[in-house]
Amino acid sequence: MSLPLQLTKSGQLKHFLSIDGLDQALLTEILDTAESFAGMSEHQVKKVPLLRGKTIVNLFFENSTRTRTTFELAATRLSADVLNINIATSATSKGESLLDTIRNLEAMHVDMFVVRHAISGAAHFIAQHTAPHISVINAGDGQHAHPTQAMLDMFTIRQHKKQFAGLKVAIVGDILHSRVARSQIRALNALGVAEVRVIAPKTLLPAYVESMGVIPLHDMHEGLRDVDVIIMLRLQKERMNSAFLPSEGEFFRCYGLTEAKLKLAKPDAIVMHPGPINRGVEIASSVADGPQSVILQQVSNGIAVRMAIMTMTMGSHGASV
Amino acid sequence: MSLPLQLTKSGQLKHFLSIDGLDQALLTEILDTAESFAGMSEHQVKKVPLLRGKTIVNLFFENSTRTRTTFELAATRLSADVLNINIATSATSKGESLLDTIRNLEAMHVDMFVVRHAISGAAHFIAQHTAPHISVINAGDGQHAHPTQAMLDMFTIRQHKKQFAGLKVAIVGDILHSRVARSQIRALNALGVAEVRVIAPKTLLPAYVESMGVIPLHDMHEGLRDVDVIIMLRLQKERMNSAFLPSEGEFFRCYGLTEAKLKLAKPDAIVMHPGPINRGVEIASSVADGPQSVILQQVSNGIAVRMAIMTMTMGSHGASV
Amino acid sequence: MSLPLQLTKSGQLKHFLSIDGLDQALLTEILDTAESFAGMSEHQVKKVPLLRGKTIVNLFFENSTRTRTTFELAATRLSADVLNINIATSATSKGESLLDTIRNLEAMHVDMFVVRHAISGAAHFIAQHTAPHISVINAGDGQHAHPTQAMLDMFTIRQHKKQFAGLKVAIVGDILHSRVARSQIRALNALGVAEVRVIAPKTLLPAYVESMGVIPLHDMHEGLRDVDVIIMLRLQKERMNSAFLPSEGEFFRCYGLTEAKLKLAKPDAIVMHPGPINRGVEIASSVADGPQSVILQQVSNGIAVRMAIMTMTMGSHGASV
């Protein structure tokens, strides 16, 4: 489905909408390109002129300072000009259609849309209808996908585990509502890990989740045994009072990651979380801040991975940094 | 009135507040300068260093993401630094007077104010009281003027019609409340078109509108006959429930531009609209997206025209691009 | 207390949190560095590449367009990249702790936090817990300190009076709630003025104010006699209805600066105010706009002083401009 949309005829990345349809070679190319940017942050001057004169529009229909910030920093460090448009509070309040908003920005000769939207498929829709010279990056759409988050997670895993073959990975928490989990599962399988387990109460697992290539489990003690990587998901507090979940305390007791439960995993297992973390809800502070946590490295890697995806979609395939 | 204010003694553009008082030669100079910037958007690097080190303040007392965006892009492509100040939500909430806000920004050595204000005359007031080294551009003041919009419209007309002499232009819709229409009428007459018609119900025409050099008409069939250019105005929906107008459907039936009515104009007539458009209210989608529509070209031209006005008022008269 | 925190072992400025613990030599170094930037505003291109590639985060937990603007301009003129984060409206709304917000931004390899917070000590707290490569600048914390404001005031005083020795300075108004006054008193005493007087009703003076090295007075006629510098504080209107104060008119009559009262000071006394001014509340318009007022020069100097503090804390000690 998305394959013809996000790739050029010669198989290069044109948009970045979803992990679906991207093969191991392309995902590895993204990770390798990100590698070349990862060292840059240590430099005295953290900028390269790869996208100088390009205009990147952060088109946020859903407010997310955190995600916007990482894209803004990535764009700035590539010397692009950034235009932040918070649609929630502005433009379309005059009743303009999404397509007319896009057409107008295109006419201003912008080069890229970074799209965040509460509705699944919004970034795809924009990519389908935008001008050929514009690239679209999905910065999270509804419960569908958050592919740049998944790629920074893959980068972090590779950084610590060197290769994906043979790895056992557990994803824990609200799989049902998580666009992050959906993208991670696709990426992990495409990159060839041995096993992806999803651990959650039945109410927080999608129906037919096995069809995504995962092993569903309801018990942490069973699920964490001998894994190399543990990915904790953020518990959306707004779901807490719903029928999905009993209480924060109850959830933490069953599915929170504590030092005791962490011992079930391999001794060199790494602990990941997309942030922002709820301390004492899905993860104990001692684990989040502990020696096996790579949560802040994920944040750092997020800049490099987004720089890679931006340059690749814009046709500048990671020129020498 | 505004002539001595917006021109230097030698007749060069110092502020850009209104079309009033600007003669054909100066308006033509703006269009010619914009021409030199219009090609730039195709370049790999869309920036020129003409205003490097200059600080341009977007001083918006009225929220308008759309207009702010075009000025921000124009300034960025001239390599200026842009400071966005949304007064509605900030600064003067501490009760500071407009003049004190201006004095403070002047003291920070900024170089230009781009002013949007709900009150007619606000940009003039600021230009009258600001320091001599600062230029003021009117980005829309009350129901008075929106001169950069008018100039991008003139640019678009010239692009398609080559010259203004002999042209018949119809402006359709809510003339009474439109700062855009007021500025367009001045510009069209200064540039020497043959005829400007304004088409609207009586309740949406200003009294003594003929004194502005236009022919008022109440019927589209009469008004559109043989025109070269049709400019549709946006219908402010907030006026809909007032005494001015019957209903959306009724308005569209009488004054909306359809393919059938468009046939009354010359076969090569162009259709313009300042945006954002209300599809099915003042214009049919098939016309807005049709072959005679130049609506998106207007948006593109808006960047070039604003770059021209910024460099001219700052004394850099369109150096080689 | 703050001495070991804001200085390196070799005594150089690492953070800028408070005037406390900074000696005359260091304060003078700040003023001298600012001097080298003060001339820049006159240049055609108002930028130097001293902080190119650095990322400066305006971390505002309290909204202040005015203060944010001065830091943004200072950073931009040093060629740094600026990230504005308004925490009030965003990020921590998801319930993330302050420390987690800081850790995340650190992980994005930012270089400086400019912190504004309603709670006294917030900037210190962040400086205590942030990564070693990051500098923190206090842009106002609760009723504690506003040290960059104090330094721009010192710069303005030196500009007019050449030296601090022998000067008599009066600070007038709501001393009790003013972080500005607290920082000014420290700076004036560290720089060796002859006398600092604080003039206010008893309800607006802190207990034991004498221990700060000032002479408390309740009467303007006594307090202004023969002073070289008068610093008026802004009256926070929100305190007006409290028990602290009678009425605006009453306050102006007793503690407002009029031309008549100004005559009590030395003939060449200068009048200062941190802004925004309440005309007719703490200061008469004729005085604010009069020949002895240096209020707008304070604003101009604010940019240069903040550029100096930014470059000094970042280890670029005022390289040639």
Cα distance, first to last residue of chain A?
34 Å
Helix % of chain A is 25-40%
CATH architecture of the largest domain in chain A: 3-Layer(aba) Sandwich
Main interface: chain pair and counts: A-B, 22 and 27 residues
CATH-defined fold name of the largest domain in chain A: Rossmann fold
Write a compact overview of the structure shown.
The structure is a homotrimer. By secondary structure, chain A is an alpha/beta fold.
What labels describe this entry?
globular; 4-stranded parallel β-sheet; 5-stranded parallel β-sheet; alpha/beta; homotrimer; Rossmann fold; 12 helices; 14% strand; 321 residues
Q: How would you characterize the overall build of this protein?
A:
- Three copies of one chain form a homotrimer.
- Chain A is of the alpha/beta class and 321 residues long.
- The first copy, chain A, folds into two domains: 3-145 and 301-313, Rossmann fold; 147-299, Aspartate/ornithine carbamoyltransferase (Rossmann fold).
- In chain A, 36% of the residues lie in helices and 14% in strands.
- The first copy, chain A, has twelve helices and nine strands.
- Chain A has helices spanning 3-6, 24-38, 65-77, 98-107, 122-129, 147-161, 179-190, 220-223, 248-255, 259-262, 285-288, 295-313, and strands at residues 55-60, 81-86, 112-117, 135-141, 168-172, 195-199, 215-217, 229-232, 270-272.
- In chain A, the strands form two sheets. The first copy, chain A, has a five-stranded parallel β-sheet with strand order 7-6-5-8-9. The first copy, chain A, has a four-stranded parallel β-sheet with strand order 2-1-3-4, sandwiched between helices.
- In chain A, helix 2 (24-38) packs across helix 6 (147-161).
- Chain A is globular and about 55 Å long.
- Chains in contact: A-B, A-C, B-C.
- Chains A and B meet through strand 2 and helix 4 of A and helix 3 and helix 12 of B.
